[in-house]
């Protein structure tokens, strides 16, 4: 069975500080990986996707970047946080031949 | 661009009531349609999908039928339970092996009174 793990569970950061969020998938080789952002009480917005190691495509520009250093790892980062970055960050995976995406438990980010 | 509209922002019911959450979509192509459920503090869980006209998806007593004519995919359940309290999202996506872009509706918060 596939498992998806996100770290940290929650972060409280200052405006202007750097950020790094991580996601790991176990039990599935070469998954398609995704980052989503969800404002409190809001809907989900896809930020990035990756179909292979080293390749990441941006869907929405939010002064964030993403990288895929390993087949099972996806990283979301920024050098300078904004207040608008606060929210719930979700990682998801999909089989390359499938439709549906499966989400991780999420990371709650609060920027003060 | 493609979009998903959920009419109800919140729905409040009692146990054993019948549930309908309305979902309409606008798409340039022929998308697959999905329902996800999200419990507080957790990531969304995939409920089911339908990928062609008149196809019915179902899971855990919930069901929805893809209707291309009315561009709808309404979620229904005959008898809700308190444990069904959550936020429900309708979404659309294309059979794109790579990007897998999903477009979500605004979500409907379902509250069930015991």
User: How many beta-strand elements of chain B?
Assistant: 12
Please describe the biggest sheet of chain B, giving its number of strands, its sense, and whether it closes into a barrel.
6 strands, mixed
The largest contact between protein chains, plus residue counts on each side, is:
A-B, 25 and 24 residues
Q: What overall form of chain A do the CA principal axes indicate?
A: globular
User: How are helices and strands ordered from N to C of chain A?
Assistant: EEEEEEEEEEE
- Uncertain parts of chain B: none
Give the helix/strand layout:
The complex is a heterodimer of chains A (112) and B (114).
Chain A: E1 3-7, E2 10-13, E3 19-26, E4 32-38, E5 44-52, E6 55-58, E7 65-70, E8 73-78, E9 87-94, E10 102-103, E11 107-111
Parallel strand pairs in A: 2-11
Antiparallel strand pairs in A: 1-3, 3-8, 4-5, 4-9, 5-6, 7-8, 9-10, 9-11
Chain B: E1 3-6, E2 10-14, E3 19-21, E4 23-26, E5 32-38, E6 45-50, E7 56-59, E8 62-65, E9 75-77, E10 86-93, E11 102-104, E12 108-113
Parallel strand pairs in B: 2-12
Antiparallel strand pairs in B: 1-4, 3-9, 5-6, 5-10, 7-8, 8-9, 10-11, 10-12
Essential attributes:
heterodimer; A: 112 residues; mainly beta; seven-stranded mixed β-sheet; four-stranded antiparallel β-sheet; 0% helix; 57% strand; globular; B: 114 residues; six-stranded mixed β-sheet; 50% strand
Provide an overview of this structure.
The complex is a heterodimer of chains A (112) and B (114). Chain A is mostly beta strands and 112 residues long. In chain A, the strands form two sheets. In chain A, strands 2, 4, 5, 6, 9, 10 and 11 form a seven-stranded mixed sheet that branches. Chain A has a four-stranded antiparallel sheet with strand order 1-3-8-7, with no helix packed on it. Chain A is globular. Chain A has strands spanning 3-7, 10-13, 19-26, 32-38, 44-52, 55-58, 65-70, 73-78, 87-94, 102-103, 107-111. In chain A, a hairpin with a 5-residue loop joins strand 4 and strand 5. Chain A contains no helices and eleven strands. The model of chain A has no long low-confidence stretch (mean pLDDT 93). Chain A is 0% helix and 57% strand. With 114 residues, chain B is mainly beta. Chain B has no helices and twelve strands. Chain B has strands at 3-6, 10-14, 19-21, 23-26, 32-38, 45-50, 56-59, 62-65, 75-77, 86-93, 102-104, 108-113. In chain B, the strands form three sheets. In chain B, strands 2, 5, 6, 10, 11 and 12 form a six-stranded mixed sheet that branches. In chain B, strands 3-9-8-7 form a four-stranded antiparallel sheet, with no helix packed on it. In chain B, strands 1-4 form a two-stranded antiparallel sheet. In chain B, strand 10 and strand 11 (102-104) form a beta hairpin. Chain B is globular, with a radius of gyration of 14 Å. The mean pLDDT of chain B is 94. The chains are: A mainly beta (112), B mainly beta (114). The A-B interface holds A 32, 34, 42-46, 49, 51, 57, 59, 90, 92, 94, 96-97, 99-106, 108 and B 32, 34, 36, 41-46, 49, 51, 89, 93, 95, 97-102, 104-107.
């Amino acid at each position: 069975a596939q498992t998806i793990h996100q770290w940290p569970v929650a972060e409280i950061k200052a405006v202007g500080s750097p950020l790094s969020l991580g996601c790991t998938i176990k039990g599935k080789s070469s998954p398609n990986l995704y980052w989503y952002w969800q404002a409190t009480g809001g809907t989900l917005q896809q930020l990035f996707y990756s179909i292979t190691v080293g390749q990441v495509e941006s869907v929405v520009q939010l002064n964030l970047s993403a990288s895929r250093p390993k087949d099972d790892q996806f990283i979301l980062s920024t050098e300078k946080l904004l207040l608008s970055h606060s929210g719930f960050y979700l990682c998801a995976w999909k089989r390359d031949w499938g439709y549906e995406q499966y989400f991780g438990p999420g990371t709650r980010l609060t920027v003060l | 661009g493609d979009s998903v509209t959920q009419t109800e922002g919140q729905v409040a019911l009692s146990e054993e009531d019948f549930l309908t959450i309305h979902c309409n979509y606008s798409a340039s192509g022929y998308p697959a349609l999905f329902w996800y459920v999200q419990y507080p503090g957790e990531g969304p869980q995939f409920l089911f999908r339908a990928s062609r006209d008149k196809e019915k998806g179902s899971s855990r007593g919930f069901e929805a039928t893809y209707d291309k004519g009315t561009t709808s995919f309404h979620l229904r359940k005959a008898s809700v339970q308190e444990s069904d309290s959550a936020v429900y999202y309708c979404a659309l996506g294309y059979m794109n092996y790579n990007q897998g872009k999903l477009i979500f509706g605004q979500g409907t918060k379902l509250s069930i009174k015991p």
